[in-house]
Structure formats: structure tokens, C-alpha cells
UniProtKB/TrEMBL annotation:
Lineage of origin: Bacteria, Bacillati, Actinomycetota, Actinomycetes, Mycobacteriales
Organism expressing this protein natively: Segniliparus rotundus (strain ATCC BAA-972 / CDC 1076 / CIP 108378 / DSM 44985 / JCM 13578)
Stated name of the protein: HNH endonuclease
Length: 89
């Protein structure tokens, strides 16, 4: 069985630690429910601050993100962070 860059033990440990320590999505700012499991878009995932596809290290800095937010962000070249609107009166 071929291994992928996310199947290595060191990466899985770092990902688990990131999700334990950070309970808010760094993209949308909403809480990440640890009981929601993959492949639900609201499940927790680890985002590489510097995308691996752009030269980042697989074991580099990670931040917690919803899976759906992480997929939307992609490698960071698609669009900027979502606009946050205050209450409209």
C-alpha cells in the first residue's frame, strides 16, 4: 500500500494535537464540533499555513479549519478569506 503525505504517523499526531488545542475554525471563525466526523464539511481538518502545493512543509505549521472551509480555501490562491458582515439594521 502506497503512503500519502497525510498518512504518516508524525503528521497524524500533529493534526490531532492541532485539533485538540484549537476549537475555532481559522477561516470562518465558528466552533469546530469534535463529534462531527469526516466527510462532513463541518468536521475538523488541519490546514497548512503555507500550502504544501506552494512549497510548504507537510509537518510545518498547521491550523484548525472545518473540512468545507479548508476545501474552499484550497491552496490559498482561489479567493481571500470570507467577508464577515455585522448585523444589518
Amino acid at each position: 500500500m502506497a503512503s500519502t503525505r497525510t498518512s504518516h504517523r508524525a503528521y497524524r499526531r500533529k493534526r490531532a494535537k492541532t485539533l485538540r488545542e484549537q476549537d475555532t475554525c481559522s477561516w470562518c471563525g465558528q466552533w469546530i464540533d469534535p463529534d462531527v466526523r469526516y466527510p462532513d464539511p463541518m468536521s475538523g481538518s488541519a490546514d497548512h499555513v503555507v500550502p504544501v502545493s506552494l512549497g510548504g512543509d507537510n509537518l510545518g505549521e498547521l491550523r484548525a479549519m472545518h473540512l468545507g472551509c479548508n476545501l474552499e480555501r484550497g491552496n490559498g490562491t482561489r479567493r481571500s478569506q470570507p467577508e464577515r458582515h455585522g448585523r444589518q439594521w
